[in-house]
Amino acid sequence: MPIRHFLLALAVVAIWGSNFVVIKLGLNALPPLLFAALRFFFAVLPAIFFLPRPQVGWRNLAAYGLLIGVGQFGVLYLAMRAQISPGLASLVVQTQVFFTLLLAMRLAKERVQGYQWLGLALAAGGIAVIASHTDGSTTVLGVLMVLAAAFSWACGNLVGKRAGRVNMLAYMVWTSLFAVPPLILLSLLVEGPASIAQGLQQAGWGTWAAVLWQSVGNTLFGYGVWGWLLARHAAATIVPMALLVPVFGIGSAALLLGEPLPPWKLGAAALVMSGLALNLLWPSLYAGLRILKRSPSSK
């Protein structure tokens, strides 16, 4: 992979990881559901006028928009308002890898391998450590809400897979169209007009920068570049870079928000990251070992 492509991938995972700090900053002024609605609103406009609709059914676009917009980010923002710290949220939400695996096993009848069960067990152990160390910044409810967001993300992964090979940037823009109305409606019902008005009045330039960072940096640039890289390189080359997302998430939360890093948190991160690494890297490593074993030079 050329160094410029590697740097692009590194920039994407850095944006995705540090994005949890940006979410926390935006939530200081805006109610969670309103914040999520604004994120997807600016992902839709004005980009939708320049990107043609992908050749995908409306039902697929709507399902992905609802799962990612409401189920993933709506719930994630609600949890991050007061139930879980940004660093831990960036770690727990990566369990979407295992939810995707289990859903594929259930719906597509894919067989789960032994190493995948081991990876799941390691990650589950890390989540259990997090749940057993709740305090003022992280609650059991917060962990459960982020797990629910991860499950919705996994469901969205399967819906997105059924869309086939499409322009990922256009797909994100057009699916975001279906996330905005329900998020606005939920914000009106749950948070109320008074809370919405107060949040908009309190929002300064930093808050709007956080909203645009979510829309342009995280959604349009991040997913667009990631899709561009996946179209040019093997998935086994690009996808493991996503393991750095929690690293940037935990690191940026500690550096910018002063989030503490006690030994139990580092241990939980090590367990979850080990499970993710095993799930993503073992197939390539095992294939490489088999090729090495068969080569004449190894005899």
What does this structure look like?
Helix 2 (32-44) crosses helix 8, helix 5 (96-107) crosses helix 7 and helix 8 (168-176) packs across helix 10 (205-230). The chain is globular. It has one domain (3-298). With 299 residues, it is mainly α. It has helices at residues 3-27, 32-44, 58-82, 86-92, 96-107, 114-131, 140-162, 168-176, 180-202, 205-230, 235-238, 244-257, 263-294.
Mean pLDDT: 84
Strand content: under 5%
Amount of helix: over 70%
Head-to-tail CA distance between termini: 30 Å
Number of strands: 0
Order of helices and strands: HHHHHHHHHHHHH
What count of helical segments does DSSP give? 13
Taking pLDDT < 50 over at least 5 consecutive residues as the criterion, the unreliable ranges are none
* Inertia-based shape: globular
What count of domains describes the coordinates? Answer: 1
The secondary-structure class comes to: mainly alpha
Describe the largest sheet.
none
From the alpha carbons, calculate the radius of gyration and give it in angstroms: 20 Å
